Fold this sequence. Notes:
The chain is α/β, with parallel strands linked by helices. The protein has a single domain (7-203), classed as Rossmann fold (3-Layer(aba) Sandwich), CATH 3.40.50. It is 37% helix and 21% strand. The protein has helices spanning 7-23, 27-30, 36-46, 66-73, 87-96, 132-145, 172-183; strands at residues 56-60, 79-84, 101-104, 116-121, 147-156, 187-190, 197-203. A seven-stranded mixed beta sheet has the order 3-2-1-4-5-7-6, sandwiched between helices. The radius of gyration is 16 Å and the shape is globular. The relative contact order is 0.16.
Amino acid sequence: MAGPLTPCDKLYIRLFYLLRSWKYDLPENKAGWRSRRNQELRFQVLTGIGDLQNQSLLDLGCGLGCFYGYLKGQGWQGEYTGIDILDFMVRRARARFPEARFEEGDILRDPPREKWDYVFVNGVFNHKVKDNWGWLESMVGRAFALARKGMAFTLLRRETGWMDPDLFYADFGDFERKVRLWSGGKYKIVTGYLPEDMAAYLHH
């Protein structure tokens, strides 16, 4: 399995969010999304993995805690943990939601010792890095191992035609083959909620 992100990859991701944090006012734009609707459509799909009520959830790449805010707005109750590699994102998430648990961390370098019922990764893999598939395999493998019941994550889809050269897009066929392998065959892929996006559920 591939190792953690390179220093250049981490610098690129850090600058991406720093620039957005200076340029935009709304949390969804600071977190890299075009609109709240665009962001929340992904949240809605991710939560379709199972009944999350009273479950423990890990939000990897939690950013400003937008997923937590969405869950609470839907009446969710449970145990939430958000982890992000960016210190300034974690500080701002704590300020927005002081009752929630947010931590700075890199699960590939320093894996958590605890487990959660479900693990979520939203939008993180859209960044173009030196080895996207290697990073995906490492992250999904580690994240799935932290989940008791399953994990869900999103990825941009290549077949939509228009593509941002700074982002990573996956071919649907390649994506499904890899998800089947990573999950041991216990998976579901969801499309249709946004033309440029797809989500995967991996179940134990």
